Amino acid sequence: MAEPQMTPEQIKALQEKIKSMSPEELKEFQKKQCIFCQIISGKIQAKKTYEDDKVIAILDINPSNPGHILLLTKEHYSIMPQLPDDELSHVFMVAKSLSNTMLRSIDAQGTNIIVANGIAAGQRAQHFMVHVIPRKEKDGVNFVLPQKSMEQSEVESVGNRIIAALGGSVEKEEKPPVPMAQFLQPKIVPETRKQDRKEPKQASDEKDDSITTPDNKGNDSKKDSPKPKSGIDLDDIAKLLGAK
Amino acid sequence: MTAEKSREGCIICGIIAGRIPSKKVYEDDLVMAVLDVNGSNPGHCFVMPKNHYPIIEQVPDPEIGKLFQVSNKISTAIFESLGAQGTNIFVANGIPAGQTVAHFTINVIPRKENDGINLQWQPKQLSEEEMSTVELKLKEQSKNIGNFEREKKIAKVAASKPVEISGEEEEFFSRQLRRLP
Q: Looking at chain B, which residue has its C-alpha nearest residue A135?
């Protein structure tokens, strides 16, 4: 899909505008900019195939295959790490069911479930979504996942860094890492999470902030530059949808 | 018929049982995650149910929830520890979708720009009529979706018990599974 370019002046004006916003305003701004929030609220038409109180499934207007579904959270989250565990579980239980319906109703021979977090991963819209894609043999969809072999030393160091970031222990390498089941305990109650959502600046997760609130990272121009671009992506989709 | 705890000859079951060496990054009673040493990028992880389920449809809902929660935590850990610019969560169900091992697996893949991975597609042009037909078919079948709560409660009482698959389901899936190695 072609990405329309903004002039440097427009980008600068947008950045200034975003910087001057309070967290609440920013959240509102993001929601207003978000084409998918408008689909959810019914302002923009889409072909819904499933809906409940937490999620909505619509047909992708640029599908990889007929029946390609976008499963969206009704709440606006930019990336997956922002989702509370219970909501995340629900999303993927529905994704599993949607995969199931594809096998049974549109003769899919398989399915792919894909999430893209971040522009480098192929994320185009700032609204968390799961792609559920019906697959058939020779359907022309070619996902490329190359194999790169790792040195044993790299395996250890990369693995240990992930374990450490998960909060585990890596003291003895010959011993399997300590289970990190504690992070699955429901210590974060949904209520607290809701507060975090309203006040993104107080959210403890820096990674979330780096993507959702550009104003926090104003000093990092390298990271900032793709954001206005992704905002335009949304407009682009809005135009396509609005054209109907 | 009950779902198998473990299947002989399954590579993933071998990894889970420790017969095949791996670099574990996470383990609990139902889920294990290991580093893929031939991954698409350094840090590519597999998240797998310990019980042997060939495809996603067989994995009970509570385990689905947990598997993706773990995948999400690993995704976050990859962001934090490996300086990834993004992550993909990728699942392939069935051979046409690219599934190579008959044990349900979630791929968590760290991403950087120009890393040689391609999960994009060339959009297919469908007529309004084709879109509506697909919509109706999926909508009709999706009426049965829901009621996940009940399974959650059962899970709390007997999370580790083997999960029953009804005769009809089994028949449906066995057709699918014969296709897998």
A: B97
